[in-house]
Amino acid sequence: METTQETAVTQTTTEAAPPSALERRIEMTVALSDIEREVEQQLKRMAKSTKVAGFRPGKVPMKMVAQMYGQQARSEAIGAAIEKSFGQTVREQNLRVAGQPRIEPKPAGTEGQMDFTAIFEVFPEFKVADIGGRAIEKPVLSVGDAEVDKTIEVLRKQRTTYSVVTRAAETGDRLVIDFTGRRNGEAFDGGTAKDYPVFVGGGMMLPDFEVALQGVTAGQEKVFDVVFPDDYHAKDLAGNTVQFTVQVKSVEAPQLPAVDADFARSLGIADGDTGKMLAEVRSNLEREVAKRLRARIKEQAMDALLETNPIDVPKAMVEVEAQQMADKARQDLEGRGAQMKNIPVDASWFTDQAAKRVRLGLIVAELVKDKDLHVKPEQVRAVVDDFAATFEDPKEVVRWYYSQPQRLAEAEALAMENNVVDWVLANAKVTDKDVAFDELMGNQA
């Protein structure tokens, strides 16, 4: 809303009082005469389009217009005056406001004026600290034949089949059992199952239960005691000794598929060429290893930036981030079928993590600006190409990314993170450290 006359407003700023080093205040005074003048002009503008039964448009008496819209006009006039004053002061003092200001009216002071206080936060002013003394261990791993062989074994185990055997059960076998658990001679809830599959030595059951399954045979009935641990989740069973009766219905030995044409076809090699399969497994493994190594390096780089730049962050930004994280958690749970009306998700649960994210975001933004680490088109394209490489038609995936602004923005953000990580590695004390394949892959091999 534009005014036809400058509003008489004066303001001063005061430094933040502890504990919020980023809080600022602006004191504003608004002349009532200017507010009344603006209200009158606003009502005249409204009168031109006001419709009331019995009056022609534009001919409604001003007294009626004032009764209908006076409060709205006054509120808008005061809001516009405060917004104008606040914006002018922020520009004059070159303040970078974080979040929305909180406007508080002050008790009546000088006659003929209204006094307000704007309370708000500003972005922290800082320069990214020198990172030269920070030590970073860069994990290193080369993909060789041994790593490819381990990956093939993982893929074989994922396609394991089982066949019935007549021998005694061994570690790795699958059993189909019925069992009943009794405490003090009485069956208890959750202690009975029929046709239950369990792997010998698979870690699915309590230790005493698994030990008792070693060496059993099909058709055998076995009775044994199991001691529940003191910290067991069912409090009525924790620390108790329970007797189980197990009927073994079958013993099944694992059968791993041969590395042949059928196996290659199961991995998407249409013609079953095992040579092509091995080449593709190696290529995918190299990409996955590089991704995991990069993730570990990135974590160290970002931690280094956080630890060397202990800056304050605006509470308003943390609250917004925490709420977004809570909303995301709620959506994830709903996506898994949870009835969220019975599950509260409080933004306060995410405050610490949100503060870390906001702090890191501010540090990265300052670093990008100060060191000119802005992404280049070819860097974004490299990220998109890497995403697309795992698909059957990479060119189509690339076109899809460039037609989806949100997805392309994600690629740009990742490219920028890569630039930041590269800068940290170029300026910190970096030493290579060999990492074991199994450890890097999370013991998946």
Q: Which secondary structure elements does this structure contain, and how are they paired or packed?
A:
Elements: E1 9-14, E2 23-31, H1 32-47, H2 62-92, E3 97-105, E4 113-122, E5 135-140, H3 145-158, E6 161-164, E7 174-183, E8 186-199, H4 207-213, E9 221-227, E10 241-255, H5 261-266, H6 274-308, H7 315-335, H8 351-371, H9 377-388, H10 394-402, H11 405-427, E11 429-434, H12 437-440
Parallel strand pairs: 5-11
Antiparallel strand pairs: 1-2, 2-4, 3-4, 6-10, 7-8, 7-10, 9-10
Helix pairs in contact: 1-2, 3-6, 6-11, 7-8, 9-10, 9-11
Q: Could you walk me through the main structural features you see in this protein, from its secondary elements to its overall organization?
A:
Helix 3 (145-158) packs across helix 6 (274-308). This protein has three domains: 9-122, Trigger factor ribosome-binding domain (Alpha-Beta Plaits), CATH 3.30.70.1050; 135-145 and 270-440, Trigger factor, C-terminal domain (Trigger factor, domain 2); 161-255, Chitinase A, domain 3 (Roll), CATH 3.10.50. It has helices spanning 32-47, 62-92, 145-158, 207-213, 261-266, 274-308, 315-335, 351-371, 377-388, 394-402, 405-427, 437-440; strands at 9-14, 23-31, 97-105, 113-122, 135-140, 161-164, 174-183, 186-199, 221-227, 241-255, 429-434. 16% of the residues are buried. The chain has twelve helices and eleven strands. It has 445 residues and is α+β, with helices and mostly antiparallel strands. Strands 6, 7, 8, 9 and 10 form a five-stranded antiparallel β-sheet that branches. The protein starts with 8 loop residues before the first strand and ends in a 5-residue tail after the last helix. The protein is elongated, with a radius of gyration of 35 Å.
